[in-house]
Amino acid sequence: MAWIYLIVAGLLEVGWAAGLKAGAGLTRPWIMAATLAAMIASIALLGLSMRSLPLSTAYAVWTGIGIVGSVLVGLVALGENASPFRLLCVAAIAAGIVGLKLSEP
């Protein structure tokens, strides 16, 4: 169950990062309220996952999901730069996430 909490927490991190962008500098109150709710839920689920996962693994996977997911949202929804080097770096982060998952007993 800890891994499910962690994955959902990471996806919520992507949501709140996108919410910060969509909030246009804190000028859209409803978007910012949803962003704040996603932040709270993300951290709460991260905390729940850490009941049975090591700090180093849980935090690295959480931030990794947030990084990779935010880059994908930027590429797909916001038309951000998709250079080969940038994609290679994201792939390296994703490989690290998978490696951390595989290293757990």
TrEMBL record:
<keyword id="KW-0813">Transport</keyword>
<keyword id="KW-0812">Transmembrane</keyword>
<keyword id="KW-0472">Membrane</keyword>
<dbReference type="InterPro" id="IPR045324">
    <property type="entry name" value="Small_multidrug_res"/>
</dbReference>
<comment type="similarity">
    <text>Belongs to the drug/metabolite transporter (DMT) superfamily. Small multidrug resistance (SMR) (TC 2.A.7.1) family. Gdx/SugE subfamily.</text>
</comment>
<keyword id="KW-1003">Cell membrane</keyword>
<dbReference type="GO" id="GO:0005886">
    <property type="term" value="C:plasma membrane"/>
</dbReference>
<protein>
    <recommendedName>
        <fullName>Guanidinium exporter</fullName>
    </recommendedName>
</protein>
<dbReference type="GO" id="GO:1990961">
    <property type="term" value="P:xenobiotic detoxification by transmembrane export across the plasma membrane"/>
</dbReference>
<feature type="transmembrane region" description="Helical">
    <location>
        <begin position="59"/>
        <end position="79"/>
    </location>
</feature>
<keyword id="KW-1133">Transmembrane helix</keyword>
<feature type="transmembrane region" description="Helical">
    <location>
        <begin position="27"/>
        <end position="47"/>
    </location>
</feature>
<dbReference type="Pfam" id="PF00893">
    <property type="entry name" value="Multi_Drug_Res"/>
</dbReference>
<dbReference type="InterPro" id="IPR037185">
    <property type="entry name" value="EmrE-like"/>
</dbReference>
<dbReference type="InterPro" id="IPR000390">
    <property type="entry name" value="Small_drug/metabolite_transptr"/>
</dbReference>
<dbReference type="GO" id="GO:0022857">
    <property type="term" value="F:transmembrane transporter activity"/>
</dbReference>
